[in-house]
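In this supplementary section we document a worked example of the pipeline. Step one takes a protein sequence of length 180 as its only input; no multiple sequence alignment statistics are reported here. Step two produces a three-dimensional model, which step three serialises into structure tokens for compact storage. The input and output of this example are shown verbatim.
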Amino acid sequence: PAATASADIAADIADVYLYHTADQLIVSIDFAGPRPLTEPARYDRDVLYTIHLSNAGLKTTSEFDVDIRFGQAANNPAASGIRVAGLPGTTAPVIGPVETIIEGEGGVRVFAGLIDDPFNFDAVGLRLTREMGSLQFNNMRNRFAQQNTTAVIIEIPLSAIRNGDNRITAWATAARIRPA
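The serialised model returned by step three reads:
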């Protein structure tokens, strides 16, 4: 897709996904996409991503602000790493290399890397639906097929964040620390 010269691609959050298993909360944020399969992931050390998690039933305040930062090794600028702080049930940040699953304390796991864009959208079906006035969607057409995005996926034990029967809600923000 086209981008304007002033677009801040690295700070552009595309999606936030939140789901759970019987004992794990999985939070995923993807950004800097969609990108052709030939392009690498984007790890911008000057962008702070924050996933805001609420377990109090309020959708406007967060009880946990999970901060995500990337960095490069001084002796190897091509080597990128991630630091995730503020995770429920942890006392120390999770730090490690990208493109691998990092085990944190208390059963927390973090992955940062290039993934197949999980969003599925039929842009042709939307256009045809508007033109014809009836639904024209086809689940075999996917605007984001063969596109990648950079993602951070975090697993948190539900026991570390659950608050009675309250729903868990999430949203994300990005902020540029230094000018591009």
